[in-house]
Here is the input.
Amino acid sequence: MSQPVLSSIHVHPLKAVRGFAPREAVVEPWGLAGDRRWVLVDAANKIVTQRPHPRLALAAAEALPGGGVRLSAPGRDPLTVEVPEPGATTTIEVWKDKVEAVLAAPAAHAWWSAYLERDIRLLHLDDPATRRPIDPAYARPGETVSFADGYPLLVTTLSSLDALNSLIAQGDHADEGPLPMNRFRPNVVVSGTSPWAEDDWSRIAIGEVTFRITKKCGRCVVTTTDQETAERGKEPLRTLARHRRFGDQLCFGTNLVPESAGSVRVGDPVTVLE
Here is the structure.
């Protein structure tokens, strides 16, 4: 088999909404530069995601120089939001973590509240180096993560998606396939591997940057959400439940922690180190 390569890069400036696919990205200790540095919360200061709000799939956040974002969504005029000035933080709940973050301008809260028709606020992660430690069961001292679900990066492979789609085609909901990779919201996608090769990786290098594999990525209902229409189906969870169950999790892709600094570029060689 030929040398695996980095097929695509995906950055989501705001957790739970559409991101963009640059040709190159800087790798920071807590993830790709600009990835998931913004988050939405409800009136109870708990994160808002596509799980209960699939319409977030139709919204987008475009990264701007300096870390701001330009928001767009159906029925809403675009809104530019700048990084808030340093100051008082608000404690929010990101799954089981209590995290300090800085509120965006009031106009951003109003924009999101109107779109989702409920009380919503937008916040920015001001200091990713200190705010949110990685689960200590999988982390080394001092390692942190942004507003990603749990780990700095998620890697998937095109061959595993092809294998999954073949399994979906044999199931009861074959009409829902084939599924695109955006159902899984990865950061880096690799081509040129065998199906499920990532299950056996412990350390990899993408170009000049090395990464440690922590654990397989357990998947949720977001993967059943069409990212173009916000409609939900049964797949891929039905098929993952039959073929990719590990303990109590249905898995696709694997989580990465950077071991070195640098940049990754589409076309970079991907080398399995361990």
